[in-house]
Amino acid sequence: MASSASLLLLFVVAASHVCCSHGQGGDEGAVAAIYSLGDSITDTGNLAKEAPPGAFETIKHLPYGVTFGRPTGRCSDGLLIIDFLVFCSSCANAAQDMGLPFLNPYLAKNMSFDHGVNFAVAGATAMDPTDLFNRTFSMPFTANSLKLQLQWFKDFMKSTFDTDQEIRKRLQSSLVLVGEIGGNDYNFAFYANKSVSEVEKMIPAVVETIINATKQVLDMGASRVIVPGNFPIGCLPSYLTAMAMPEPSAYDSTACLKDLNLFAAKHNTQLQQAVAALRASYPDAAIAYADYFNSFLSLLKGGPALGFDANSTHKACCGAGGRYNYDLRLMCGVEGTAVCADPSAYVSWDGIHMTQAAYKAMSRLIYHGRYLQPQILSFREKNGQT
User: How far is CA 5 from CA 20, 90, 335, 371, in A?
Assistant: First the structure.
């Protein structure tokens, strides 16, 4: 097991409309708004707004956002999966999208929330901080959690709409994403030098927290909800560096750490089972599990065919050298680091988060492929493209 210091920063892991069916052969209706809860995989600027001056400065400046043209508070060189779901008209060869504007972060001022809100915060956990403290390890960077984001969501809806009936009506024409969330709960535990077997004991509580939040969203009136699973963390440059093993047998055929991927798969299996139970309890709602785990593995295995450099699928684009171009002492954006010439050829941006190109490819695999279970989004073609 790696030292606690070596894991310090792992967390900082349709002519423009879409129809969404309610179950098999159900009614269809256009999505009017998207509401998103989650962590850095989804955060479009809340951490940058929330953090005091001097904290998390790297994501507020280039090279973060270099592909987009400016820093936006996203933990990437450009856009995220959520961006490709809501609006891809500005993306090359994009044929399908929801035709909605990018989701503004909840903490932004004087911005429109007419088409949805992003409540996700980089570094956020599923479980409440006090629950994590009781597990004998601390959260060194953020106190944000799914509980707080859910309260933001409720406060926003109550301040925007006059009655619960109006809230239900709005949510019935909306899409709600609960996650990806939970990855940081485990990252903090690994940071505290907990073993894989110890961290596995957290899975039921983390999954229960995600499901309870999803129930609250459904009880408010949401009729279309997506709950994403965790990534194969054993494939990330950060973990490949921090938990490197000398034995070749510790790695699988995709050059990822077996034990960490098995751990992530266990989380996902329990989450999928819980989501399936939700469908039985809420038969009138369309509730889908987004398979980030297998879509990411498909990205690695089919990297060259998707335009990624076969020799760089496990390396960070922005870093300071080493086998995986990841060094926790020199994180992307600080002096001594450099950015690769072509981020679109890389899967990983900074060793923890992915590049815009990778997020775009994953979005296509998930929302237009076989990794949304069941497929509750039925996209229409735009301008004859597919």
Answer: 46, 41, 20, 35
In 3-state terms, what secondary structure has residue 15? coil
Q: Cα torsion for 10, 211, 287, 143, to the nearest 10°?
A: -40
DSSP secondary-structure letter at 52? P
The answer to whether 356 and 345 have CB atoms below 8 angstroms apart is no
For residue 152 the two structure tokens come to 């933001």
What are the CA-CA distances from residue 180 to residues 62, 144, 151, 240, 257 (Å)?
25, 14, 17, 21, 21
Question: How is 63-111 classified by DSSP, letter by letter?
Answer: TTTTTTTS--S-SSSS--HHHHHH--TTSTT-------PPPPBTT-SS-
Let me know: does 290 contact 366? Beta carbons within 8 Å. yes
CA triplet 100, 102, 107: central angle to 5 degrees? Answer: 130
Ordered by start, the domain boundaries in the chain are 33-230+256-289+356-371
N- to C-terminal Cα distance for the chain? Answer: 46
CB 348 within 8 A of CB 354: yes
pLDDT in tens, 216-239: 999 999 999 999 999 999 999 999
Positions marked active-site: 40, 350, 353
d(CA 108, CA 113): 10
Each residue's pLDDT tens digit, 60-96? 999 999 999 999 999 999 999 999 988 543 333 333 3
- Measured between alpha carbons, how far is 156 from 176 in angstroms, rounded to an integer? 14
